[in-house]
């Protein structure tokens, strides 16, 4: 995306993944474009620019949003978390991220960031985690590769449920990670 410098711009300061970030944005700049283009945050993906696919999902002041539906200027003074905030300070994967890898819940990876943000929200909601609740909770995220079965398994495993090991992987292999 090329920034139109003839348009009105404003300075914004947003805490992104725990770090204060300041920049100039046009009034029309979408949050997803600012995160990716100005801050080089590669987690949120641009899948549809219409709020349908969930690949751009971020947490904005404790609420999940599709960042292609939010103007960057709207987030001025607020906090935004991308999937990068989910990993440990040392860069280690959290339990959900490990389960996504262990249960082959990603293939091309394009939707993964949005899936992780949505699943994190679901796991912290206090809702009982069942196959149905995971499918319902992940409804706003589209994956063209996996067919969702392994994503549901990964979320349930992250919740501590007994879930059969993925095809081609021994149960001990998953448990040892």
Describe this structure in words.
- By secondary structure, this protein is of the alpha+beta class.
- The protein has 2 domains: 9-86, Ubiquitin-like (UB roll) (Roll), CATH 3.10.20; 95-175, Orthogonal Bundle (DNA polymerase, domain 1).
- It contains 6 helices and 5 strands.
- A 5-stranded mixed beta sheet has the order 2-1-5-3-4, sandwiched between helices.
- Strand 1 and strand 2 (19-26) form a beta hairpin.
- Helix 2 packs antiparallel against helix 5 (149-158).
- The radius of gyration is 17 Å and the shape is elongated.
- The termini are far apart.
- This is (2Fe-2S)-binding protein.
Low-pLDDT sequence parts:
none
Q: How is the largest sheet built, in terms of strand order?
A: 2-1-5-3-4
Give me the CATH fold name of the largest domain. DNA polymerase, domain 1
Total helix count?
6
Number of E strands:
5
Domain 2Fe-2S ferredoxin-type: 14-78
GO molecular function, one term: 2 iron, 2 sulfur cluster binding
Keywords: 2Fe-2S, Iron, Iron-sulfur, Metal-binding, Oxidoreductase
Pfam family, one: Fer2
Layout: helices, strands, pairs:
Elements: E1 9-16, E2 19-26, H1 31-38, E3 57-60, E4 63-66, E5 79-81, H2 95-102, H3 112-123, H4 131-137, H5 149-158, H6 171-175
Parallel strand pairs: 1-5
Antiparallel strand pairs: 1-2, 3-4, 3-5
Keywords: 2Fe-2S, Iron, Iron-sulfur, Metal-binding, Oxidoreductase
Domain 2Fe-2S ferredoxin-type: 14-78
Protein name: (2Fe-2S)-binding protein
């Amino acid at each position: 995306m090329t920034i139109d410098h003839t348009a009105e711009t404003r300075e914004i300061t947003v805490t992104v993944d725990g770090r204060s970030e300041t920049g100039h944005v046009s009034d029309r700049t979408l949050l997803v474009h600012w995160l990716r283009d100005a801050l080089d945050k590669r987690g949120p993906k641009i899948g549809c620019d219409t709020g349908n696919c969930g690949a751009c999902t971020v947490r904005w002041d404790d609420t999940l949003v599709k960042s292609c539906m939010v103007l960057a200027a709207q987030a001025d003074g607020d906090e935004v978390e991308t999937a990068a905030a989910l990993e440990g300070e040392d860069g280690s994967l959290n339990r959900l991220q490990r389960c996504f890898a262990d249960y082959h819940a990603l293939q091309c990876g394009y939707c993964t960031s949005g899936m992780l943000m949505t699943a994190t929200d679901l796991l912290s909601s206090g809702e009982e985690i069942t196959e149905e609740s995971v499918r319902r909770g992940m409804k706003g995220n589209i994956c063209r590769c996996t067919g969702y079965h392994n994503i549901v398994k990964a979320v349930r495993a992250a919740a501590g449920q007994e879930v059969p090991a993925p095809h081609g992987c021994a149960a001990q292999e998953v448990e040892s990670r």
